[in-house]
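pipeline stage [seq->struct] | target=Flavin reductase family protein | organism=Phytohabitans kaempferiae | residues=164
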Amino acid sequence: MTVTSGPAALLAADRLRRLLRQQANSVAVITTAGEDRPVGITATSFTSVSLRPPLVSFCVDRGSSSFPVFDAAAHVAVHLLGADQEDVARTFATSGIDRFAETAWRPGPHGVPLLDRALAWLVCRVATRVVAGDHVIVLAAPETAGHTEGRPLVYHNGQYVVLP
């Protein structure tokens, strides 16, 4: 085992990526309404931040083609995917395609797209954005939500997995 420490010792990006693949994460699709079309991304960075006031967060890559729309969005929808939605996760993780063409959705509050069959969803007002390296951390305040019962889709070690 190699140990790296000290203030000047920063992990290389590829090493950090390999290390963080050991963390299991829920799979979320974040959507918003663009000027001419809906926009969405798959994110494994979604997390609860605070209950008082209610806040959640997710990260958006500043280099992604969707970033300008998310950077200007006042509202977003967060969808926690169920065990049977790996295809949706892969679709929203693929660049250069119309992610909504083969995905069932409907317009929600503030015009944000709501994906059908999500295990849970939240419509949120963007509270603030924090630049953090090559990403932006979006802090958002949930305004409305819904959920169904089921097993979540999880991302671990570069693969989508389902809990038993």
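stage status: PASS
auto-comment: Residues 128 and 139 are 5 Å apart (CA to CA). The mean pLDDT is 93.
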